[in-house]
Amino acid sequence: MTRKKVKLAYITNDSSRKATYRKRKKGLRKKVSELSTLCGIKACVVIYHPYESQSEVWPSPIGVQRVLSEFKKLPEMKQSKKMVNQESFLRRRIAKGNEQLKKQCKDNREKEMTQVMFQNLAGKV
Fold it and tell me: Which residue has the higher pLDDT, 92 or 124?
């Protein structure tokens, strides 16, 4: 059985929103835990919610401090090397799409020319 695609929009119903928050928060922690275990990386999660008195952290406050301090020790170039904001992500995707389009146009032109040549040889034109 497949899951229904979730419409990503603000949930107006308070109880539904809080239930979704709890479920997704749990899922997020589990995914980060799996990522850390499977790939052998150091990862942490800090979740802030205005209805809770404290931010929630994974794996522990000390673990989060350790990961963040290691990150802050890196030179600024390495810190921002793989960071992507929405604008740069979209620019890269558009550039990649344009390259694929150019390649496809070139392939189509070559196929059309081959087809015209075969038609000429067969005397259909």
Answer: 92
